[in-house]
Specification:
about 220 residues; alpha+beta; Fumarylacetoacetate hydrolase, domain 2; 5 helices; binds zinc ion
């Protein structure tokens, strides 16, 4: 349905990613499935390093002996024109690309870190924890509050996302992040996952797709 052409693969290798911001607890049904509490006034925010990225079509190398690894399918936006204190009403003008990605999570490790009150990096920021699909420019007919996406694993639908169910919209997220950080060109924002997160093991075919978004495929190793 989309007429946009994904950027070529070499654009991925050349990309500069100052930060990868990730939003946690942004869909009510996902919060419920993990028995988490609702976020407060502001988003739950954590970051991953650029070393977490995996280009579409590459193998995702999973950590070994680290307990259960979960997939979290997410809409991803790329910041083009940076700035601080961006109004939600102007957020769209700051987006240069949109696509889909996976926020891979070491769930057992994260539970341990939550219990001891430690930061989440070991569970969220490991190598290959942020597979990123192709990004396309934001088209005029893309409504950021009505974007649909799906994750299939070995041909079985595992997660269905509808950004209309986000607790914080993409525009609200950009406004909020830009109140804390100067957003920079190339920053990526993983906007949270809907319900249906589940285990990932080596040898799986993972496919992210959406009617207005470019498809991304990976195999886990
Ligand atoms: Zn996530």
């Amino acid at each position: 349905m989309t007429a946009s052409t994904p950027r070529p693969a070499d654009a991925f290798a050349a990309r500069s990613t100052p930060r990868i911001f990730c939003i946690g607890r942004n869909y009510a049904k996902h919060i419920a499935e993990l028995n988490n509490s609702l976020p407060g006034q502001e988003c739950v925010v954590f970051m991953k390093p650029a070393s977490a990225l995996v280009a579409p079509g590459e193998a995702i190398t999973l950590p070994a002996d680290a307990g259960e690894i979960h997939h979290e399918a997410e809409l991803v936006v790329e910041i083009g024109h940076g700035g601080t204190s961006i109004a939600a009403s102007a957020a769209r003008e700051h987006i240069s690309g949109i696509g889909l990605g996976l926020d891979l999570t070491l769930r057992d490790v994260q539970t341990g870190l939550k219990n001891t009150g430690e930061p989440w990096e070991k569970a969220k920021a490991f190598d290959h924890s942020a597979p990123l699909g192709p990004l396309v420019p934001l088209a005029d007919d893309m409504d950021l509050t009505a974007m649909h996406f799906e994750l299939t694993v070995d041909g079985e639908t595992r997660q269905i996302g509808d950004t209309g169910q986000m607790l914080k919209s993409v525009a609200d997220i950009i406004a909020e992040l830009s109140a804390h950080w100067r957003l920079l060109p190339g920053d990526l924002i993983y906007t949270g996952t809907p319900e249906g997160v589940g285990p990932v093991t080596p040898g799986m075919q993972m496919v992210l797709s959406g009617p207005q978004l470019p498809e991304a495929r990976w195999v886990t190793a």
